[in-house]
Write a structure and sequence with these properties.
By secondary structure, the protein is mainly β. The protein has 2 helices and 9 strands. Strands 1, 2, 3, 4, 5, 6, 7, 8 and 9 form a 9-stranded antiparallel beta sheet that branches.
């Protein structure tokens, strides 16, 4: 009888402990070579677009759901699609991204909301040492080959929140047709693996 009662208590203890034990999400490493970040900036007289490289990143995956992640962007890698060295130099200068002082930007995921592949990603974006919240729609898939892919086709960032005021009508009323839109857009495609 004592053995039976002890066995029952042991079983209850194991079940109780397992209820409080959570499985940690698995960290997937982003494959920077297979991942892309493109940008577009608009102005009154047209637009510019190009790329910037992901330096490193991780996605936290719990089962089939992405629960978090951290990404570092190499701001010195910014490229203009038309190959303008002058524009690339200006974007790296202090009145834009100030890459000599701030060579990287980061994004840390704080929440992924939604079910299935279509989700809303929320997190903190840091540019020039200034951190602001940012949310955007994305499509995330945990694939049968053991990889995770994520796509965010349009992430809108207000550059003035990060002290990038050059050519902004919000700060320079008389700028006229030389004005640059306060918002720029990013499109991100990520591939990550264990």
């Amino acid at each position: 009888m004592k053995l039976k009662i002890s066995s029952i208590f042991l079983l209850v203890a194991v079940v109780s402990l397992s209820a409080f034990t959570t499985i940690k999400p698995v960290a997937y490493t982003v494959d920077a070579a297979k991942s892309t970040i493109t940008w577009i900036g608009k102005k009154v007289t047209g637009s510019h677009n190009g790329t910037v490289a992901l330096q490193s990143g991780t996605l936290n995956v719990d089962g089939k759901k992405v629960t978090g992640g951290t990404f570092t962007i190499d701001m010195n890698s910014i490229k203009d699609a038309d190959g303008s060295a002058k524009l690339e130099g200006h974007l790296k200068a202090d009145d834009f991204f100030g890459t000599a002082k701030f060579p990287t930007s980061t994004f840390v995921i704080t929440k992924v909301a939604g079910s299935g592949a279509a989700v809303t990603v929320s997190g903190n974006l840091t540019i020039k040492g200034i951190t602001k919240p940012l949310s955007f729609p994305a499509t995330v898939s945990v694939n049968t080959d053991g990889t995770v892919s994520a796509l965010a086709g349009k992430i809108t960032v207000d550059r003035t929140k990060y002290d990038i005021r050059y050519g902004s009508k919000s700060f320079f009323d008389s700028i006229g047709d030389k004005a640059i839109d306060d918002n720029f857009e990013l499109a991100v495609k990520l591939v990550a693996k264990k």
